[in-house]
Amino acid sequence: MKIGNIDLGERPVMLAPMEDVTDHSFRLICKEQGADMVYTEFVSADALIRNISATTRKLHINPAERPTAIQIYGREIEPMVEAARIVEAAQPDILDINFGCPVKKVAGKGAGAGMLRDIPKMLAITRAVVDAVNIPVTVKTRLGWDHESKIIVELAERLQDCGIKALTVHGRTRSQMYNGEADWSMIARVKENPRLTIPVIGNGDITTPQKAAEAFDRYGVDGVMVGRASIGAPWIFHDIKSYMNDKDSSAPLQLGEKFALIRRQITESISNIDEYRGILHIRRHLAASPLFKGIPHFRDTRIEMLRADTWDALDSILNRIQYEIIPTIQENIPIHNPQLQ
Of the residues 14, 49, 83, 101, which is catalytic? Predict the structure, then answer.
């Protein structure tokens, strides 16, 4: 699969853009685990052109994580064009436009998935951004605003006509937010459209290697994007790639390797920010990690882990979980969580 001149190989698996998740440290870890392309946190066009430092820091790309896409969002043409030019100067491999974020503070103001209620403006922004830069431009969006307006098949053609080089489709409407199941049959209809020639990347509920393989085998997409399932589990890319390369002998990481990745995320977060805020930043990963799911009577330890505010305290808790709690459980109780095998 190619996006412009960026060759991502056969059946690429990508890290989705996620606010407060896909910082450059996490992107690099996911890349090392097998992600074929990674996306930054989404960047506000308005904040970017105002040179807000917290926003401009999101443009930093480690050469080792490439190919990398920087994603921007906004609701007006001129700021989006100006932001696109600023992004191009940061030299990403791809510029992605966010027409899919469903959260109220974005979509409620007309940006992100809010653009699904103003298709003429969506197309005008897309066309203007494509014309403003010399790097490949892609779009990420949803099926439509709600169940009554699943317009993605026609919309995909119109976005292609604007000059985008690939389209990512999240298989939910904006009104669904992240509830219910993603509708991959609609994504398949986009891909099956003979008038669509650009690559189609499917997104939504890719939580296991088997689901990733099904996206390619059953729904025919050119690439898949993994979002929430990577939070606290960057090894999902290793598992997916291992499974798809040899379905009969996939090789998941060992428990110690997974704990090492979690520790690396914490220490790098601390190094990039500071101890207190770095630990706050990583709590989302700890709270979501499947590594701790299925451990009986874990509530008190979980609360302690998520309240720890120093590295020494957090490392001590992780050591207790890894070397005392889990081995005891494995000796006495059958474990049903594959993350703990």
Answer: 101
